[in-house]
Specification:
Elements lengths: L18 H11 L52 H10 L2 H9 L4 E4 L3 E3 L4 E4 L6 H21 L12 H10 L7 H10 L1 E5 L10 E5 L5 H6 L5 H23 L2 H45 L10 H12 L3 H9 L18 E2 L6 E2 L6 H20 L5 H9 L1 H16 L5
Parallel strand pairs: 1-3
Antiparallel strand pairs: 2-3, 4-5, 6-7
Bound molecules: zinc ion (ZN).
The site of zinc ion has 5 residues, from helix 4 and helix 12.
Length: 421
C-alpha cells in the first residue's frame, strides 16, 4: 500500500529519522506513482505471519459487536468505530485504557495492519480471530509515537528509544546476538562470488551473489536478497575449507596457517549461529506451550485471543536482526513462527510480498535498522503488557527483564505527563 503525503510541510522534517519515512523518501524518489512526478510513499508496518507451521491461520469470526460492560473503568471511545472500541474495552486492561485516554486517539480504519504517524492513521483487521492482537499491536505504534512526541517532538516513534539498551542486554543474555564481524571482514578482504540455484521457493531461477573486495558492511547488505545472509555463511564455510585443503596440499606453512585461521573463524560464526537457532527454538517452544494454555481460555472463535506467540516471535525476529529468518528462508527449518519481511530489521534488501521480487533496502544504516527493532518490540510489548490475560506477560518479565522494565517505566512516564489542554 502506498499513500501520498506532503512531507515537507510536516514539522521536524529535517530531523526525520524513521525507517518508514526513509523508505518513503527512497521510494518517492523512484517515482512510484508512475507519473514521473516525485511522490512519497510508505510501506506498512506489518507482521508477516507466514509461513507458519502448526498455527491456525486467522479466520473470520462472528461479525456482531458484543456489548461493553457499562460499569467498565476508563472506557475508551476512539470515535472511529464501535467495533474497535468494543475490542479495546473488553480485552485490554484499565491501566492500558487510562494511557490511551491521555493522548490523542488514533484514527482507526478497517484493513490489514499498519500505522502511519501522519494523521495518526491506524489500519487493522475487523471480525477476525487476530483482530484484537493486530489492533493492540498497531495501537502500540500509535502510543510510541504520541508518547515519544511529548518527550522529543523532533521525529517519529521516539517513545521506544529508552528500550534499546535493555533490548540489547536481554538479547545478549538469551544468546540471541552473534558476532558476525568475520563475515563482513572476509568479504571486505577477499570479495565473494557464489551461485544461487532455484532451490528456495523464494528465488526464481539461478543468480550469482558477487561482490569485489573493498566493500563495507552497508554495501554488502545492500546487495543481499532474502536468504543471502545465510547463504553467504554457508558458502564461506565450504569455500574456506576448500582453500585450507589446497594450502595443505601445497605444504606452504604461512599459507597453511592463514587458510586454517580463516576457516576456523568462519566455522565459529557458523557454529555460533547454529547455537543461536537452538536458543531461539527453545524460547519459541516455551512460548508455544504458554500460548496453548491461553488459547484454551480464549478459543480461537472470538477476537479476544491474545496472539502472544506471534508477538514474541516477531520480537525474536527483531532481536536477531532477521538473521534467523534468513536461515529458515534458505533451509525451510521454521524456528520462528512469525516476523517481518526480509530487510526490515537490517540493511538488507526487501522483497515484494506478492511477486517475491527483490526491492531496495528499507534501512540505509544500522541506526535505522535499530529503530525498526525497538519500534516493533514496543508495539508487541504494548499488546502483551496491555492484555487482560497476564500469563504471557509474567513469563516475559523473566525472559526479557530489562526490556519489560524499560517499557513499564515509559508507561509510568506516560501516566505522569501533564495533560495537554
Ligand atoms: Zn508493527
Amino acid at each position: 500500500m502506498r499513500k501520498c503525503i506532503d512531507l515537507e510541510s510536516q514539522p521536524g522534517f529535517q530531523d526525520i529519522y524513521s525507517p518508514v519515512l526513509a523508505q518513503a523518501i527512497d521510494r518517492g524518489l523512484q517515482g512510484h506513482s508512475g507519473t514521473g512526478v516525485v511522490d512519497w510513499g510508505y510501506l506498512p508496518f506489518e507482521i508477516e505471519t507466514g509461513p507458519i507451521e502448526g498455527q491456525p491461520p486467522s479466520t473470520e469470526v462472528d461479525n456482531t459487536v458484543p456489548p461493553v460492560d457499562p460499569a467498565i473503568i476508563n472506557p475508551v471511545i476512539t470515535g472511529s468505530n464501535v467495533y474497535f472500541d468494543s475490542l479495546i474495552n473488553r480485552f485490554i486492561t484499565a491501566d492500558a485504557r487510562a494511557i490511551i485516554n491521555r493522548f490523542p486517539m488514533a484514527n482507526i480504519e478497517e484493513g490489514g495492519g499498519q500505522y502511519s504517524p501522519l494523521g495518526y492513521k491506524l489500519i487493522t483487521s475487523k471480525h477476525r480471530s487476530d483482530s484484537a492482537f493486530v489492533l493492540f499491536h498497531e495501537y502500540g505504534h500509535h502510543l510510541d509515537h504520541v508518547i515519544g512526541n511529548r518527550q522529543d517532538p523532533n521525529g517519529f516513534f521516539k517513545g521506544s528509544v529508552p528500550l534499546m539498551e535493555g533490548i540489547v542486554r536481554d538479547a545478549d543474555k538469551n544468546k540471541l546476538i552473534v558476532n558476525n564481524t568475520i563475515l563482513w571482514d572476509y568479504i571486505f578482504k577477499h570479495g565473494i562470488n557464489f551461485g544461487i540455484n532455484s532451490e528456495s521457493k523464494n528465488t526464481k531461477g539461478g543468480r550469482v551473489f558477487k561482490l569485489p573486495k573493498g566493500v563495507d558492511r552497508a554495501e554488502i547488505e545492500a546487495k543481499m536478497q532474502e536468504g543471502d545472509y545465510w547463504r553467504a555463511i554457508q558458502h564461506l564455510k565450504l569455500h574456506t575449507k576448500k582453500q585450507m585443503q589446497n594450502a595443505n596440499l601445497a605444504k606452504e606453512p604461512v599459507a597453511m596457517r592463514k587458510a586454517k585461521d580463516a576457516y576456523e573463524s568462519v566455522l565459529k560464526l557458523y557454529d555460533d549461529s547454529m547455537d543461536r537457532h537452538k536458543a531461539v527454538y527453545k524460547l519459541i517452544l516455551e512460548a508455544e506451550k504458554l500460548q496453548k494454555q491461553i488459547t484454551q481460555k480464549f478459543p480461537r472463535k472470538g477476537e479476544g485471543l491474545h496472539d502472544f506467540l506471534t508477538a514474541f516471535s516477531d520480537m525474536l525476529d527483531g532481536m536477531t536482526r532477521g538473521e534467523v529468518m534468513s536461515y529458515q528462508n534458505v533451509t525451510g527449518d521454521y524456528i520462528l513462527r512469525a516476523g517481518h519481511a526480509a530487510g526490515y530489521y537490517s540493511m538488507r534488501m526487501q522483497k515484494d510480498r506478492e511477486t517475491g521480487k527483490a526491492l531496495p533496502r528499507a534501512n540505509r544504516n544500522a541506526g535505522m535498522a535499530d529503530e525498526s527493532i525497538r519500534a516493533e518490540i514496543w508495539a508487541n510489548m504494548f499488546a502483551t503488557w496491555g492484555a487482560t490475560d497476564k500469563t504471557f506477560y509474567n513469563w516475559l518479565k523473566n525472559t526479557l527483564p530489562e526490556t519489560t522494565i524499560a517499557f513499564e517505566k515509559q508507561m509510568k512516564a506516560a501516566m505522569d505527563m501533564p495533560l495537554v489542554v
